[in-house]
Amino acid sequence: MIKKCLFPAAGYGTRFLPATKAMPKEMLPILTKPLIQYGVEEAMDAGCDIMAIITGRGKRAITDHFDISYELEQQIQGSPKENLLKDIRKVMDKCTFTYTRQNEMKGLGDAIYKGNVLVGFQSPFAVILADDLCVNPNGDGILKQMVDLYAKYKCSIVAIMEVPECDISKYGIIEGKEIENGVYMVSNMVEKPETKNAPSNLAVIGRYILTPDIFNLIKDTKPGKNGEIQITDALCEQAKKGMVLAYKFKGRRFDCGSVDGFVEATNYFYKNLK
Length: 274
Ligand code: G1P
Prior knowledge:
Blueprint: E1 4-8, E2 29-30, E3 33-34, H1 35-45, E4 50-55, H2 60-65, H3 70-76, H4 86-94, E5 96-101, H5 108-114, H6 116-119, E6 125-128, E7 132-135, H7 142-153, E8 156-162, E9 172-180, E10 183-191, E11 202-210, H8 214-219, H9 231-241, E12 244-248, E13 252-255, H10 259-273
Parallel strand pairs: 1-4, 1-6, 4-5, 8-12
Antiparallel strand pairs: 2-3, 6-11, 7-13, 8-11, 9-10, 10-12
The structure holds 1-O-phosphono-alpha-D-glucopyranose.
1-O-phosphono-alpha-D-glucopyranose binds at residues 108, 129, 132, 171-172, 191, 203-206, 230, 232, 257.
């Protein structure tokens, strides 16, 4: 039912300088796989086959990654190294990649808005922020869990997790009423509140399912936190006008937008997948 997944990937990744000076942060690898490929595989496992990527200047490596590299493929053909390309080949066989650029950094809401040319106004779509790397070794991936929930409720859904007080101001925070185990009906959402003003400790992480009416709501959203157009504000409006759910996902999320989270993810994957 949800075939398209949007990947906002225009940000500068300043926390990883100098590594991200000439290389997109989405291409930083956890072991041998770039972050964005983990996200694309999660979307594919959830049933998506159109990957819509919002890029920006200096992000050509992402486009090249999801394309054939003839010289390389020819060189390793028939050698044991071919196996290393197994996963990326599967992705390329099954999915179509589309791209557009966000040419000014005006916030996540604006980046998602730019995606309307790729995902259209007719169907719900998913959004993955690739620097939130999610795993669920005991079952369905996080986006698949959300797609299943969408089938039941047919409204926008955000993934949430409990965070310690000291981290509240780093996230979009929701307020809501639990309507079934781990599923909340959102009544309010605040982007990066101060701890003392936060309505809860339930933080949005980088997985969304959005119904296309979100585009008109983003269009009417004024710049919010840090002077940027925030998807949190548009979703808050959607929750007030209709219905938005927040889903406490099963699994684990690594904040690979921070060096600590990145190292944690690297250690986790080294231990569990090697
Ligand atoms: C974005 C969103 C925020 C969300 C977070 C999850 O913030 O604006 O609501 O909680 O992603 O990672 P960013 O981390 O891009 O500043």
